[in-house]
Amino acid sequence: MRPYRILPLLLLAGLAPPAHAEIYKCTDAAGRVTYTNDRSLARGCVRLQSDQPVSSVPAPVRRPAAAATRETPQSADFPRVSPNEQRGRDDARRQVLQEEMRTEEQKLAEAEKALAEQESIRLGDERNYQKVLDRVQPFKDRVELHKRNVEALRREISGLR
Questions:
Q1: Which of 27, 85, 105, 113 has its CA 20 to 30 A from that of 124?
Q2: DSSP type of residue 72
Q3: CB of 139 closer than 8 Å to CB of 115
Q4: Any domain includes 26
Q5: Based on the structure, what is the number of domains in the chain?
Q6: Residue 138: pLDDT over 80
Q7: CA of 58: how far to CAs of 32, 44, 61, 125, 147, in Å?
Q8: Is the model's pLDDT at 88 over the cut of 80?
Q9: Of 7, 5, 35, nearest in space to 21 by CA
Q10: How far apart, in Å, are the Cα atoms of 65 and each of 72, 74, 78?
Q11: Domain, as residue range, for 108
């Protein structure tokens, strides 16, 4: 009985036509060569023989070494800042980050308070505990967001000189 199940599959596999596509080689005005199988894009292109291998991976673009060095800023081109001015900028940045930290810590405290309030109450239609979890989840998400913000600000402040 087992060969009778496999026989139809073998017949269907043998009847499937092989994949076939016409490949065209196109050269633009700048001399760049591209390959396509789209007949609408293949105007003025040469159809390749089906037995030729075609690679669809383009060659990497090589840049001259002189052009690569010009792209990086040179020390003479880079603007200089005096140490006192840089110290002033760092102090101003630290003050801004500390103010953001105070604001974010206040928002975290408010979010934790709201979460505690929501966890302490139980509405009448929440007989199923999943309903409680669904109602409280946005409050938990808000607390986590503010915790991540506080941690990011702490890392940023600790990285200052």
A1: 113
A2: S
A3: yes
A4: no
A5: 1
A6: yes
A7: 11, 21, 9, 62, 47
A8: yes
A9: 35
A10: 12, 15, 21
A11: 94-159
